[in-house]
Automatic annotation (TrEMBL):
Residue ranges of the TM segments: none
Protein name: BICD family-like cargo adapter 1
InterPro entries referenced in this protein's UniProt entry, alphabetically: Spindly/BICDR_Dynein_Adapter
Any one Gene Ontology BP term: Golgi to secretory granule transport
Domain of life, per lineage: Eukaryota
Amino acid sequence: MSDNTFFFLSLSQLAEAWQEVDGVRSRAQELQSQVEELQEEVALQEKSHNDSSLLSELEYNLVMADWSLDKEQNERLVAESTELKLRAERLVEQEVVQQAIKDRDDAITKKTAMEAELLRTKHDMMCLNNQLLEAIQRKLELSQELEAWQVRHLCVFDLSVLT
């Protein structure tokens, strides 16, 4: 009777392990999708915000400079502001790239951890399968021994009744 209990306990544990594995996989895929969506959204928001505020500031500076400086100074300021704008754009791009790299590395770390957990779960499942097979084999052996004992016992009983 305890073998039957072990058999059902192992099957239920095996089913729970499979459910956990499926849940972990689904959650990992959901998290990966969310990370990618958030990365795109953040990159677009940062670029848009930085570009528009920098452009507004530069335009304001140019308007103010037009009133007080001569043409040569204005041209120099326009060139400098263009250069500053390009530098600012490069900095924003570098920041976006760095953040994307960090997010990617974080996602890879999470994926690696999930894969390690999956391997542990598979190993546990294989161990449970082996235990289950051993229990089934032992039950079969015990059933055969019981059957042989019953046959011998019946023969002895028949002989004792006949004599």
